[in-house]
Amino acid sequence: xxxxxxxxxxxxxxxxxxxxxxxxxxxxxxxxxxxxxxxxxxxxxxxxxxxxxxxxxxxxxxxxxxxxxxxxxxxxxxxxxxxxxxxxxxxxxxxxxxxxxxxxxxxxxxxxxxxxxxxxxxxxxxxxxxxxxxxxxxxxxxxxxxxxxxxxxxxxxxxxxxxxxxxxxxxxxxxxxxxxxxxxxxxxxxxxxxxxxxxxxxxxxxxxxxxxxxxxxxxxxxxxxxxxxxxxxxxxxxxxxxxxxxxxxxxxxxxxxxxxxxxxxxxxxxxxxxxxxxxxxxxxxxxxxxxxxxxxxxxx
Length: 300
Ligand SMILES: Nc1ncnc2c1ncn2[C@@H]1O[C@H](COP(=O)(O)OP(=O)(O)OP(=O)(O)O)[C@@H](O)[C@H]1O
Ligand SMILES: [Mg+2]
Known about the structure:
Blueprint: E1 4-15, E2 18-29, E3 33-37, H1 44-51, E4 59-64, E5 67-68, H2 73-78, E6 80-83, H3 95-105, H4 110-123, H5 139-151, E7 157-161, H6 169-184, E8 188-193, H7 196-202, E9 205-210, E10 213-218, H8 220-226, H9 242-255, H10 262-268, E11 276-278, E12 287-290, E13 293-296
């Protein structure tokens, strides 16, 4: 596809005996938003790192912003922004200093770097904390600063690896607003997420990865239809009460820590009780657990 922001075919990557990616195809049109969902260890971060040229694939090929990721990595890097899964800002600078420094590294004038930093600090609601050392920030504040850093240069293609994990509902809404504005201005966005509602809110297309393979893809509407025609809310299993869910999640966590993270458990039991997150057990079709019960997010 000549005008795709991202097109990947058959990406494969192994880490020793671990098959992290096993032939993943992805496509993101220019100006689109692709949501990549999957359980812990599915291969989401590996796919992002490969597409952002931080890691070479063992097989397959991909083009980002029109350039081959293996043959022309420098051209790719010039056109992308990346916010990794773990905040990468300098703890011994203030939030504002971090953004100004990164702006200068991009080649902005001091004035331009200051003004862009100020804009993003406002948009991501960091105004009160901008003058404090980042090592005094909460996890959610660091996360927002890290995302701000990835937005500084307004790159045409943006990768965000679980951008809202750890954010409170206000932080998440503020970030959704910023991302919505960016994509409305034409930025192509690939984001990984554990939250179906986030993908639904932001993404035109959703891909679900499990064990390094794409197990379902489509628009959020198509995935909803496959889940039962009336939305995400068709339970395939009896709804669990919070108490029974807690007991269930403890059992799962004991039996298989990788497939049932504490993070996912705390999300389900959050105050609203209405958050969605994807969860799988080995051998099951792609499933989504909500506080209302279990949903199938792909072909059964
Ligand atoms: N550098 C590495 N060395 C060895 N194994 C790795 C490495 N990076 C990833 N893996 C393995 O590859 C698989 C996919 O990992 P990846 O980080 O891509 O998953 P993920 O979908 O991002 O998971 P999460 O939701 O927990 O962030 C996992 O089994 C992981 O342990
Ligand atoms: Mg990851």
